[in-house]
Amino acid sequence: MEYPEIDAFASLDSFIHRLDPRAKIVSFTVLIFSFAFVNDIKIALLILMFSALVLVSSRIPLTFAVKRIRLVFFFLFPLLIIMPVTVDGNEFVSISGISLSIEGLLYSSLIVIRAMAAVTLALIMLATTRFDVTMKALYALGVPGILVQMLMFTYRYIFVISDEFSRMWKAMECKGFRLKANYYGLSILGNTLGMLIIKSYDRTSRVYQSMLSKGYGGRPVTMIQFKMSAKDYVLSICMTLIAIFVHTYQLVLL
Amino acid sequence: MKEAIKVENLDYSYPDGTTALEDISLTIYEGEKVVIVGPNGAGKTTFFLHLNGTIKNPGGDVTVFGRSITSMKLKERIHEVGVVFQDPDDQLFMPTVFDDVSFGPINMGLDEDDVKRRVIKALSKVGLEGFEEKVPHNLSYGQKKRVALASVLSMEPKVLVLDEPTANLDPKSRVDFIDLINHLNENDGITTIIAMHDVNAIPELANRVYVLNRNIVAEGSPRDIFSDWELLNKNNLEAPDVFKLFKVLNCFGYPSDNLPLCFNEAIQVLTSSIEGKEGHIHLHLHEHTHKEINDVINSYNHHRNNGYK
Ligand SMILES: Nc1ncnc2c1ncn2[C@@H]1O[C@H](COP(=O)(O)OP(=O)(O)O)[C@@H](O)[C@H]1O
Ligand SMILES: [Mg+2]
User: Fold this and answer.
1) Among A65, A138, B17, B92, which is disulfide-ready with B136 (CB 3.0 to 4.6 Å)?
2) A242 and A123 housed in the same domain
3) What's the domain range around A186?
4) What is the per-residue pLDDT for A81?
5) Do residue A95 and residue A150 come from a single domain?
6) Top-confidence residue, A84 or B41
7) Which secondary structure element, helix H or strand E, spans residue B120, and what is its range?
């Protein structure tokens, strides 16, 4: 089965790939937060270009990235239509009696651009590190063990459960079932999901038994071997400076 | 011979009231290869959960190398008995192969270098060198089975317990897995206890067989067990094809009573019995032969209710 994996290109090589996973998570998170609070559309355009530049230098195939970023864009796109109509301000055009405001347009563009920049960065962060490494880095950064373990199990079993579901679905289709939006179709779908939950419940007890037989005592069990080099410090300090700069450039440039 | 595992008067019922095990008593010696056969729902998996203390407070005594399992610390238990469960997806619960194989050793409190050494060793034993960074969902079923075994071998247990190791494997993986288990038993001195239905593999994997059906129904060498068709019949079991074939050859006058249980053994037995008769053996067909064959077929083909006409 083909899985849509976020870390499919984690084995490529670029300076972003080589960045220590902990440094990567921290500096990208700082950047994302900083970008999310930018209030000037010109700066917003700059950070979007910056994110695109990082994306290109990470060597992640653009089609892969665009496919995912596109989803966010579609989600936010309605804002570009709704806000010019609803936000009061100077009218710049009026279409059959409905006036569109400049403020609304600017404000919605700002939101969309900021979001796209932030999502691009998040995507780069996740796509340039193997997902298991990301989780271990989170643990190393002090994220509570219980959360990390939940994340690990989710990551591991989402594939097992989706395989299970696709097997059940195939079996149903082999017996002539076609999903239609009627009472019958939906009740069968409900039963299938119920079965899936019961199967997963049974599995949890078996997984727990096998964890116990390997000596599980409640804490996450992984070996973490990360090492920060000078390069990692330099790069993350640079990124943090950029994050600060986009909010304080007036002070700095004056 | 040292006693590896000794179970006395073990009972177990699930919380919902299902009685899974009744008054089980058995002893397994160090270095033995034991197979536990029994129909689905016989309690094999439940029994195995008792052998490394996964089920706490057993209703009976389970002793491992002379010490009661309830008195042992977790780290000691997993070092004595390793259990490989049937579904590898239950056993591989970590993000990568390395994480899974190192899980036991880390819990045993070994230091980093030892853990790494053990992971490399365990993976090479199962023939998966260099698989450390792979994620389980990208492995084939046979590979997952082997990683599951490696994740137990890395704890270097003295007793290895395997639940249906050959189920769902393709013929090549099945043969490889059987060879691997035998290798571990013969070269590394690991005592192996295996649950399975795969009767054609039992002769290769067992010196001794227990028939389990809630309680221990019978015990003996594979040959004893497979000769007792009434026992097999009652417990929904079968004899290996080779063995049945030689039973039929007996009816045609094949001279040996030492009937082979598997293909390789059949070649040896045939060769030696033909040699013993100066180069040929004589098979014949008499009036009574048909009736004898019919009897054999009826006794072993109890799963289908038609006989030889
Ligand atoms: N978690 C459980 N809860 C209740 N009953 C169970 C549970 N697991 C197994 N059983 C029951 O216990 C009996 C033995 O099951 P099991 O040990 O899985 O048999 P086997 O492995 O030989 O097929 C069966 O009757 C089964 O239905
Ligand atoms: Mg079972």
Assistant:
1) B92
2) yes
3) 140-213
4) 84
5) no
6) B41
7) helix B112-125
The answer to whether the CB atoms of B85 and A155 lie below 8 A apart is: no
Residue A16: inside a domain: no
Question: Average pLDDT over chain B, rounded to whole?
Answer: 89
Q: Is residue A237 part of a domain?
A: yes
| Ligand 1 atom with least separation from CA of A205 | 1
> Are the C-beta atoms of A9 and A60 separated by less than 8 Å?
yes
Same-domain status, A209 and A173: yes
Q: What pLDDT is stored for residue B54 in this prediction?
A: 83
Predicted pLDDT at B309: 44
Chain-chain contact of B90 with A131 (C-beta, under 8 angstroms): no
Does the residue A1 lie in any domain?
no
Is residue A47 in some structural domain?
A: yes
A120 shares a domain with A25: yes
Contact A209 B75 (CB under 8 A): no
Q: For residue A159, what pLDDT is reported?
A: 87
- Comparing CB atoms, the residue among B103, B137, B155 nearest residue A159 is B137
pTM attached to this predicted model: 0.86
Residues A109, A144 within the same domain: no
Number of inter-chain CB pairs under 8 A, A vs B? 85
The token pair at B70 is: 């309830």
Does residue B305 surpass a pLDDT of 60?
no
How many structural domains are present in chain A? 2
- Same domain for A197 and A242? no
pLDDT digits (tens, 9 = 90+) for A65-97: 999 899 888 998 888 888 888 877 777 777 777
Residue scoring higher pLDDT (B262 or B155):
B155
Q: Is B94 strand, coil or helix?
A: coil
Identify the residue whose C-alpha is closest to ligand 1 atom 1.
B14
Task: Assess whether A83 and A197 both reside in one domain.
Answer: no
Report whether B89 contacts B167 (CB < 8 A).
Answer: no
Q: Are residues A44 and A164 in the same domain?
A: no
